[in-house]
Amino acid sequence: MPVTTTPTMEGHPIQAYLGVVTGEVIVGANLFRDMFASIRDIVGGRANSYERVLADARRQAIEELQAECGSLGGNAVVGVDLDYEVIGKNGSMLMVSATGTAVKI
């Protein structure tokens, strides 16, 4: 199912707007990953473990968005916005939220 941040899909006229759809994922921080990320911050480099968690959470949020679109009878999502928020006690969790408009193209 196509997902785009643009309000339209070139070459695919929108036949019907079906409503706003969302996908949200909350992941907890891992103590060992945090510890190694702190060390990496001190010595430099990228925090690959965090990057993998972030990419996986984003993928899951988009998959939820697509599933909700499909349940409304849609076959594409336009105008997608991705938001990231640190939540929980001491910022111990990360929330990834994907919001868009379900459409029939």
Automatic annotation (TrEMBL):
**What is this protein's name?**
UPF0145 protein D2V17_03210
**Family as reported in the entry's similarity comment:** Belongs to the UPF0145 family.
Task: List the lineage, top down.
Answer: Bacteria, Pseudomonadati, Pseudomonadota, Alphaproteobacteria, Sphingomonadales
Q: Which InterPro entries match?
A: UPF0145_dom_sf, UPF0145_YbjQ-like
Regions crossing the membrane: none
Name the SUPFAM superfamilies for this protein: YbjQ-like
Q: Which PANTHER family match?
A: UPF0145 PROTEIN YBJQ
- Which Pfam families does this UniProt record tie to the protein? YbjQ_1 (PF01906)
